[in-house]
Write the structure tokens for this entry.
Amino acid sequence: MTDSLVEVRNLQKYFYEQDSLVDRLLRTDPVAVKAVDGLEFEIEQGETLGLVGESGCGKSTTGETVLRLQEATEGEVYFDGSNIYDMNRTELKEFRRRAAIVFQDPFSSLDPRMTIGETVKQPLDVHDWPQDDNHDTSKDEQKTERVKDLLNRVGLSGDQFDRYPHEFSGGQRQRIGIARALALDPDFVVLDEPTSALDVSVQAQILNLLDDLQSEFGLTYLLISHDLSVIRHICDRVAVMYLGEIVEVASSQDIFSDPQHPYTKALLESVPRVTITERVRDIKTLSGDVPSPRNPPSGCRFRTRCPSVIPPANSNIDQEAYRELLSIRNRIRSRDIDLSDTQEFLEMDETEDLADRVVETMVTSELTLSEPHRSRVREAIAAALEDDWEEAESLLTEYDSICEHVSPALQEGRDHCAACHLVEQPPAVVDAVADSPVTPQDGYE
Ligand code: SF4
């Protein structure tokens, strides 16, 4: 065990569909939606770890599971050396005093029927703060005093104690949420998209406030955001998430100056820059949609969108053409090519070869699919036209990628690690690659 304040080990959170009483009576198998799948990370005392990724990749579920606001399906979360999933009621209550959360939406996270004073005071009431009662003043007076101090500290005024949330702007409401999170003097705060609902100028104020509060109270943060500029502004280290898994971890500086995972590179590439050349920059966006967490891709989960997916050894095939070939192969595998009435649809005369025309239509990259790959795809399409889908599939199995057979993993114990076959991999992954039916390209490590 290290000196980390928070250690997360193999954290999984699955949600189950088709798991109602009726489904069980009908013996329907439940379907797991793998929102978080095997996360490992730690956060040092006083550090800010950023968790970044596209919407729906499992960031918020991770934050809530780390605080045990949702029960984990599997795994451990150690807080100050103790697993929060083994804690009894008393220990869990003490953990709740030391760990807090600031929610994303400052409009819905405050009760409109409570004054902001009552809202910030609520955690103090729940935890019967202060524990020692050696003061001359009553507990209620001490709580009111504490709330007014907190409101002042987050940039509001103690005089606003009796006002209601609707009387405040979005930025002010987020300050109220921060005051509530700090009420019990926590050590650890999860910041779940704390600025995403705010105007840009207000975002900067809230980020500066969080920075100041961290220095003043020695706080440790887990900052969840899809916004790389927010991450860059405030984080010491960054963990990049994709489809429920962490794909790269490094210091903030290394992530932005030397990204290693193709997904991280794509995220950084998609950020607009403030330069006069920006208007002519061709921003390379990721193709395709994020796959469903109900049925994530085999091997590397990013492979269906990866611009660097690894072709088989000695295939001597251009990267862009290879991705198109994989797309055709996947459509054949899922029978997702409607070949009925194709001849009429393509307005062909009878002398033309139908399989050739289908290949021409499907391969859209500017780079031509070279021989012998083009002939192989043509044969597969011809087999599909004959309704022999199995033959069509088998003709293209030689184009399997190592990325779809073996899951890459993060190298343990390194400051900068990425789960990608293009960067050095742990021995277990290298062994699995050696046993794989696909031979990876030369240069693979
Ligand atoms: S393992 Fe393959 S598919 Fe995954 S990120 Fe690396 S190159 Fe892309």
Observations:
- The pocket of iron/sulfur cluster is lined by residues 261-262, 300, 302-303, 306, 308-310, 403, 408, 420-422 (CB under 6 Å).
- The chain is about 35% helix and 15% strand.
- The CA atoms of residues 313 and 440 lie 5 Å apart.
- The longest strand covers residues 31-43.
